[in-house]
Amino acid sequence: MIPVKIAQVSLSNMGFVVFLRNEQDPRTLPIFIGAPEAQSIAFFLDQVAAPRPLTHDLFKTVLDNLECRMKRVEINALRDNTFYAGLFLECNGMESKIDSRPSDALALALRCSAPIYVAEEVMDAAGVVINEEAEGLPTAGATKLKPLSPADSLKQQIAKAVAEERFEDAARLRDELKKLTNAN
After folding, report:
1. What CA–CA distance (Å, rounded) separates 24 from 22?
2. Boundaries of domain holding 162
3. How many of the other CB atoms lie within 10 Å of CB of 12?
4. What is the C-alpha separation between 107 and 56, in angstroms, rounded?
5. Residues 122, 182 within the same domain
6. 109: domain CATH number?
7. Burial (CB count within 10 angstroms: exposed 0-12, middle 13-18, buried 19+), residue 37
8. One domain, residues 51 and 123
9. Are residues 95 and 131 in the same domain?
10. Are residues 111 and 52 in the same domain?
11. Which of 10, 40, 71, 125 keeps 20 to 30 A from 107, CA to CA?
């Protein structure tokens, strides 16, 4: 297993991407994730407090109340272009593995300060060498990636809700965006 950290969450023309890196390995593992998970990860990384607990915050609270500890997260398989992950928990001295989507596993690992690992065969199959910018964050060479901010995520969700004629959702998201921008 290769220990990794979240290097960046970005929005590309194909959707949200989380980049996992190990400082000693030239490869980066890009994993496409959904908007809610990207927002949850970005909120944590940017230290943005949500007005109410996000799902991953709730799950961490439940783990804490049950006195369970997340020992690690493993991105352990890649089948049919789909990544698989496992949460390794310790409760009452017993370790158990719970299958998870990588995006949820990463959001929880951040909140639980749990280490993240990628299986060698997964990195071999999907890891890519990416040119680095001066800050050491991955870029996609010819593909322009824009860093994800909570405000950008909300704007994208508003546009999608309007396009799908979910106007009540769009109004609710607009109000969240106003709160977020007024808080800064």
Report:
1. 6
2. 149-184
3. 14
4. 6
5. no
6. 3.10.690.10
7. buried
8. yes
9. yes
10. yes
11. 125
What are the pLDDT digits (tens) for 65-115? 999 999 999 999 999 889 999 999 999 999 999 999 999 999 999 999 999
pLDDT (tens digit per residue) in 21-63: 998 888 899 999 988 898 889 888 888 888 888 888 889 989 9
- Residue 1 to residue 120: CA distance in whole angstroms: 6
What whole-number distance in Å separates Cα of residue 93 and Cα of residue 35? Answer: 35
Task: Give the three-class secondary structure for 166.
Answer: coil
| pTM score over 0.85 | no
Q: 96: helix, coil or strand?
A: strand
Region class of 42: left (phi > 0), else alpha (psi between -120 and 50), else beta: alpha
Distance of alpha carbon 184 from alpha carbon 181, whole angstroms: 5
Structure tokens at 81: 């272009």
Structural domain total, the chain: 2
